[in-house]
Design goal:
The chain has 281 residues and is of the alpha+beta class. Helix content is 48%, strand content 10%. Keywords: DNA-binding.
Length: 281
């Protein structure tokens, strides 16, 4: 796609008129119109300002620059690149610090990139076949062979997660998130689609997880992202930690974590794909 239609698409996605956007940028509506129709050329500086005002993800900012004939502004290195070793170390340290509470790191489409040992509690409910492809935390949570049958407040959790994915898809314009949203919808019964408002006005929605031994844990999810990233991969990374919402849940997690290495060995025997993620490697 050329730069003009790309700007127009993002402007429409953000529900801004040419007048509103040009006023924010301090350029004439005529010039913005010419850029969108291809009759005028945008400078690199203007494209970067456009991207900032439209709140584009870093990946989309680079795409806009490339469409305008300019070099990308941000890095795009894979997480296993040597230069990303400090990032991998930071993720591992952060995840380990949250043990015994489950904590997991995901990319911009919620694919799992790392997990701490506490996640064995969650992933032990998931059929190993779901790890044959890149495991996705939304799929693992809502798939009927994943965590879903063990979540006692599944309707609330499903609605919350669907809203999160739908919002991310709308804001990012990422077709992978559109596909993920459609897939997650297919697991539901049609009564929840993620388009409505939250069910109530609680600040945080607890996840009530029923364990194999019949205990019910009340967990709260917290998300951490990297500040001021300059690489598209880092910009998409986040960590999610499941913290106990009450004392009995905290006590259960602490007791359950005793002998965790043996638990992980039992859980992952014969399932190397699962082992890689539960062990956090």
């Amino acid at each position: 796609m050329t730069v003009g239609p790309l700007i127009r698409e993002w402007r429409s996605r953000r529900r801004l008129s040419q007048l509103e956007l040009s006023s924010q940028l301090g350029v004439s509506t005529r010039h913005l119109s010419f850029v969108e129709t291809g009759r005028g050329k945008a400078s690199r500086a203007l494209l970067l300002r456009l991207a900032e005002h439209l709140d584009l993800p870093l990946r989309a900012r680079d795409e806009l620059l490339l469409a305008g004939g300019f070099a990308p502004a941000f890095g795009n290195r894979k997480l296993d690149d040597a230069a990303m070793e400090p990032v991998r170390r930071a993720i591992a340290t952060l995840l380990a610090a949250h043990e015994p509470n489950p904590a997991i790191a995901v990319d911009d489409t919620w694919n799992v990139v790392a997990a701490n040992r506490g996640c064995a509690l969650l992933l032990g409910h998931v059929e190993p076949q779901l790890f044959d492809a890149a495991p996705n935390v939304m799929r693992l949570s809502l798939h009927p062979r994943g965590l879903a049958p063990h979540i006692e407040n599944l309707t609330e959790v499903r609605s919350s997660l669907l809203r999160k994915v739908r919002r991310a898809a709308l804001l990012s314009g990422d077709p992978r998130l559109d596909a993920l949203y459609d897939e997650l919808l297919s697991y539901a019964d049609g009564s929840v689609d993620g388009t409505g408002p939250p069910a109530d006005d609680r600040v945080l929605l607890p996840v009530r997880l029923r364990t194999h031994d019949g205990a019910v844990l009340n967990l709260l999810s917290t998300v951490t992202t990297f500040g001021t990233p300059l690489d598209t991969t880092v910009a998409g990374l986040s960590t999610e930690t499941f913290l106990p919402a009450d004392e009995p849940s905290a006590a259960y997690l602490a007791t359950w974590f005793d002998g965790i290495d043996e638990r992980i060995e039992q859980l992952t025997t014969g399932h190397p794909h699962l082992a890689a993620y539960v062990a956090g490697s």
